[in-house]
Structures are given as C-alpha cells and as structure tokens.
Amino acid sequence: MPIIEVNHVTKEYRLGQLQSLKHTLQRIAARLRGQPLPERPLFKALDDVDFKVEAGEVLGIIGHNGAGKSTLLKMLAQISVPTRGSVKVHGKVAPLIEVGAGLIGDLTGRENIFLNGAILGIPKAEIRKKFDEIVAFAELEEFIDTPLKRYSSGMSVRLGFAIATSIDADILIVDEVLAVGDLAFQRKCFDRMEEMIKRQGKTVLLVSHNIRQVERLCSRVLLLDHGRIDFAGEPRTVCDRFYTKNDAIIADNSKSLSSIARNTYQTGEIELVSATILDSTGHPITRIPYKADITIVMRFKITNTLRTPTFGAGIHTTDFLYLTTHNSEQQVTLEFVDKGECEIHCHIRTLPLLPGPYSWRIGVTEGDAARTVFYAENVLHFQIVADSNHPVPITSRQGFFELDANWSFESEPNVKHTPAVAGRAVH
Fold first, then answer.
1. Alpha helix (H) ranges present in 77-182?
2. Which of 221, 278, 310, 410 is disulfide-compatible with 60, CB 3.0–4.6 A?
3. What is the pLDDT of residues 372-385, one digit of tens each?
4. Where are the domains of the chain?
C-alpha cells in the first residue's frame, strides 16, 4: 500500500486584500439589504493533483515560483487542507518546511531544543537521549546555554535543522532547507539527508530550486506548473525538461543581449554587439546536434584602443555551473586594436557536451595583467540535441560531457572469462 496518496487534490484561495472597517460595514449593510456582492476571484494553487508515493521512495517536487510546491507540502504535513480531493498519509511525518520555526530568541539553545522538540512531537526522554548528538551536529557546544537572540542567523538555522532531522519519523518533508549555514555545514546537511534516504530507508518528499540536488537524491520527480503536474518520471528526464522550459521562457522574454545577460561587467571600452552560433555550413543555430562542429561569432564595438586584448568564451549550465572556458591568448596575438567594430570567431570541433540546455559566457581582458574590460554570463542560450544521426552512446548518458575513453579487461591466467557475443555481457 502506498505510504502517501494524493487523490485529485485542488486548493483554492480567494484573491483580494484586507478591507478597511468602512468597506466591511458597507458590505454588511449591502448583504442585509439583499444587494448582490461582487465575488473576489478564486486562485487555484493546486489543480487536480493526483499521485502516490511508495514507502522508501524519494520524490522530488520542482517547478517555478508559485507552481504550488509549498502548498502541496503543507497539505502533506497537515498544516493545510484541500478544497477538494483528499490526502492520505500512513505514518509519522517530520516536516522541515521552515527551519527554525518555533525557536524563541529569549531562550537558550538548550531550552529551545526541548521546546522545539516538543512542538515537533518528540518525547522528552528521546530529546534527552539525542541532546548531545543534536548539539554536536549543529556545532554549538560552546553556545548551547547562550540565549538564541545572540546567535547568528546561520547558527539558528543549524540548530533548527539538527532538531528537525533528529525526529524518528517514517516520512520526511523537506522544503528548501539544504542550503543552510556555510558550505561545510551544507555538506553535512546533504550527507545527513543521504544517510536518511539510503541507509535508513526514509520516505522523503523534497522541494528545492537546486535541481542538481534533486537529480542526485531523488528516485522520481514531479514537475509542477501553475498548480498542475506537468510531467513526472525519472529525475534526469524531468529535470532536463524543467531546464528546457525555463530556457525557452528566457529566450522568449529576451529582446536584446543586455536583457538576458547576467553578472555583467564592462568599463565602456568595448561593447558586445552580437553573439551567434554557426553550424558547419555557416548557418545560425541554437539547437546543436550532439558532437557537432560549431563556430561562435562574437561581434564587438571598440570605443577605446585596446592593447594586447584576449577574448574568452565559456559554457555554463542554466543554473550557472561553469563547465569549461577557452580563450584566444595563444592563438590570436594582437598588439592593439583601434576603435571600430571587429569579429572574433571561436571554432569548436565535436562539441562533447551531452544533450541538454546550456549558455555561453563571454569576456575580454587587456594587457599582460589581464585587466577585465568586458564580462557577461548567460549571453547566448543553446541546446544540445541527440537523434538517430547523432546518438548518445549508452556508456555516456549521465553528466555533462563524454569522456574520450577506452576500456580493457586483464586478468591472471587462472581466472576464467569468455568474450561476449555482440549485445551480451561478459560472464
């Protein structure tokens, strides 16, 4: 039997702002006179959502802001109830929807552990038993008897996460809580989540905008869009669909380079006029066949003479994970470039990226000290696609690029082995 059943759930909210006392009295008077009152429109945060979760499954829930992710988790945590449909949860739930909720500033860390544990339904004896483990995980041994109001924000969320993940529950509901504290503590949080999932076999529902974490941790993913399930299935496929949808939205909304570029820096000495990807025949493309030859053409307008400029181009994912960078330093040597427009061509042979959406970043430096005169990320979106003419080998279907690798098998003379017939594994 599934541990969670969400049966055609719809959640509606009445839109509108709080009204003044005057307007409230006017509405009451109108109602008493039998006059019709205009109804404020309804908003469907969830619209006929239907799915089941098996025990031990790790389900990721992703989508844009306002897609209904947190609303769904609050129903599963029994914080909210559906307008229509039903939610059935078989087992004890530990909700990590808002880390630190229930912590009180005037109480010490020690007092907050017992209070917050009680709020989360942990028996006092169990809190005592796990007290040292909670404090050690939160790295607050020196401060545990200090009032919480003297903690930094990072210390508070560390304590909240340590308490919440100490609950012995069947189902863990997690909403954007893995990005707490500094990088080292985030690593600890991630490791604890993996332990709860892989070693303890917890059922986990995870909402996160860190799609790479969702892809790594989850066994199945739901993509929500405007309160409905847009797509469900294997993590890599669903996450790639999410990236592609977002990339299409960005492309549709962009009117110029300046409207989509991110993290830009320019001194005014040089301006990027255009950037284009060309296929091997010289035609502009944004959908690049797997392992195709391409050329990226960058057109610049130089407003001040540049001495020994170096041009660079790199590729990052749509969530700004840098994958590779290449610059012109050893191949194009220029003593100076005067005012006017120029083009830089970067030819790439058999682009080894695996299918998915990506973006270009472009930069220009001047002189031996490499003084940056222009830099921009998210300049140009493109997608690597595979088809029957450009298939991805089964050996390279995870990650971002294909390794140029060869395998061989060696063994001692007394180890028996038989070469496989084509299409069959080695015995």
1. 109-119, 124-138, 153-164
2. 221
3. 999 999 898 888 88
4. 4-248, 257-385
